[in-house]
Amino acid sequence: IENDLPVNPEARLSFVMTGTGCDFQRSLGISGKWQNSAAKLKDAKVRKIDVGKVTYTAADKTQKIRYFDNIASFGLSGAVDHCLEHSRLRNYLGGSPLFLWATIKTVFTHPNQSIRFRINDGPEEEICSRLGLLANGRYFGGAMHAAPEAELDDGLLDLLMLKEISVAKFLWHLPKIYKGTHLKIPEIFFQKVRKFTAESSEQVILDIDGESPGYLAATFEVLPKILNLQI
């Protein structure tokens, strides 16, 4: 994708995931075994899906752009990325156990942060939040069912922000996030959006499809049905 358009509109994306979290394939209902996924590619149907776009602040304070197919987030998830980058446990743990360990370890040191935000170019609002995410897919963080109502082709991103919350209460609710039953708890702000802009006077770390390229301020947008997915 370049300038918000496919470089080749006829190109199709197929993949076999063998990474740490493999969360995107869960939104597609694909088996966790790469052999099964590979065997199905030949006869797979093509569907058009949305792509997310993030215009964010890089470490050198310049504005950069990244596209994502699954989930972009900020706050605790970005700090978890940093934790994993420097952890030797990556060599021994994988998938859900690794992300769960990193999340529990990080939540004790990562504070709630003040976020100023706008939804769909509306009025500025403010929230004290430990974690925020914009979801195209449904899973992240090694099988957390973070956005159970997200659809890959509805032209919208599911915005979830975890309001100011204690560590104890976060850990109490953590199993609900894995099950996808957390949307109705009082500490969750949830709305479907086309555009979301956020900034902070604090250093708020981004996570974009499992990588941490920068920080808020950032603008998150959806590009409807521009990717041909054959899977």
From TrEMBL:
**What's an example GO cellular component term for this entry?**
plasma membrane
Superkingdom assignment = Bacteria
The entry's keywords: ATP-binding, Kinase, Nucleotide-binding, Transferase
UniProt keyword annotation of Isomerase present: no
SUPFAM superfamilies listed in its UniProt record:
NAD kinase/diacylglycerol kinase-like (SSF111331)
**Keyword Kinase on entry:** yes
**One Pfam family in the UniProt entry:** YegS_C
Q: For this protein, what is any one GO molecular function term?
A: ATP binding
Q: Where in this chain does the record put each DAGKc domain?
A: 1-57
What the entry lists under InterPro entries is as follows:
ATP-NAD_kinase_N (IPR017438), Diacylglycerol_kinase_cat_dom (IPR001206), Lipid_Phosphate_FormReg (IPR050187), NAD/diacylglycerol_kinase_sf (IPR016064), YegS/DAGK_C (IPR045540)
Q: What is this protein called?
A: Diacylglycerol kinase family lipid kinase
